[in-house]
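ok trying this again, last paste got cut off
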Amino acid sequence: MFTDLLRAVFHLTEELERREDVSRLPDTDYAHIAGDIKRAYIIIVREWLDYVKYLKEKYPYLFSLAMRTNPFDQTATPFVK
């Protein structure tokens, strides 16, 4: 799965590097790049969830911080409540 993440991110990087001005692309390119971003995002979310599950089982103190700074929680805070 991690290899898939690397492939997805490297592909996205290559797509963006080959375009001189990403602010002036045809709609078809925007749709293609949006698909590439979605692919990478889905994989990275799965990787993060697997990582957090591992932390919960093996390193509860690290899991606690991961939950308090959860990137999917807009109200997350590192402060212990």
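PB: full thing came through this time. Residues 27-58 form the longest helix (32 residues).
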